[in-house]
Amino acid sequence: MPENPQPKSAEKPGASSSPAASAKPNSSDSPEVVNRQRRRLIWTCLWGYLGVNFLMFLRYFFPRALFEPPTIYSAGYPADFSLGIDQRFLQSERCWVVREPGRLFVIFAQCTHLGCTPDWEAAQNIFHCPCHGSEYDSEGVNFAGPAPRPMDRCYVQVDPSGQIVVDTSRRYINDPAAGTNQFNDSGAFIPV
Ligand code: FES
């Protein structure tokens, strides 16, 4: 007589042994099992919440600050500069050191139109902005193009050792439209 095929395991029909299935409360689970699963879910949510808050707390120790390079630098001794425009700090500090008979000052190399860096054209004795054609004389005073005013000058002083100290964050402006001229203020130049 042919034998009837029998199920190999003792599982009930419709029962599953997968972990996902076992995580869900099953109508056949006892109340104790259901409570345990609920407690586990609550603790998981609680630890997740605390973990996120702890990470946010740690984030305060790493502020999104922009660390800019120092704006103060030593430019050497006045005797290091001869008359005229000196470009040795143009790349590193965006400045020209200008020595004239009786004074030395520092021009911040930024066009007052839209902020490009002008070129020093030694043959013509002018600064020329490549962006829109503004032109400045050898003291950085505009005379052509859309630039509205002369280029700014940086704070400059001589320290106790006799060296020139420049601060590019402190600017002196000459704005004829506003009736402001700070180029002769203390700190805008040093007598030499
Ligand atoms: S930025 Fe220099 S002329 Fe426009």
Question: Characteristics of this structure?
Answer:
27% strand; binds FE2/S2 (inorganic) cluster; 3 helices; 4-stranded antiparallel β-sheet; Rieske Iron-sulfur Protein; 13 strands; disordered N terminus; 2 domains; single chain; 192 residues; alpha+beta
What does this protein structure show overall?
By secondary structure, the protein is an alpha+beta fold. It is built from 3 helices and 13 strands. The chain has helices at residues 19-23, 31-59, 90-93, and strands at residues 72-76, 84-86, 95-100, 103-108, 119-121, 126-128, 135-136, 142-144, 153-158, 164-172, 174-175, 180-181, 190-191. The chain has a 4-stranded antiparallel sheet with strand order 2-3-4-13. It has a 4-stranded antiparallel sheet with strand order 5-6-7-8, with no helix packed on it. Strands 1-10-9 form a 3-stranded antiparallel sheet, with no helix packed on it. It is elongated and about 100 Å long. 19% of the residues are buried. The model is unreliable at 1-22 (pLDDT under 50).
Sheet with the most strands, sense and barrel status: 4 strands, antiparallel
> What proportion of the residues form beta strands (DSSP E)?
25-35%
Q: What separation lies between the terminal Cα atoms?
A: 123 Å
- What does the average pLDDT come to? 88
Number of alpha- plus pi-helical segments: 3
CATH architecture of the largest domain: 3-layer Sandwich
Percentage of helical residues?
Answer: 10-25%
Count of distinct strands: 13
Q: What structural category arises from helix and sheet content?
A: alpha+beta
Assign an overall shape. Answer: elongated
CATH superfamily of the largest domain: Rieske [2Fe-2S] iron-sulphur domain
The order of strands across the largest sheet is 2-3-4-13
By CATH, the topology of the largest domain is Rieske Iron-sulfur Protein
Low-confidence stretches: 1-22
Q: How big is the Rg?
A: 37 Å
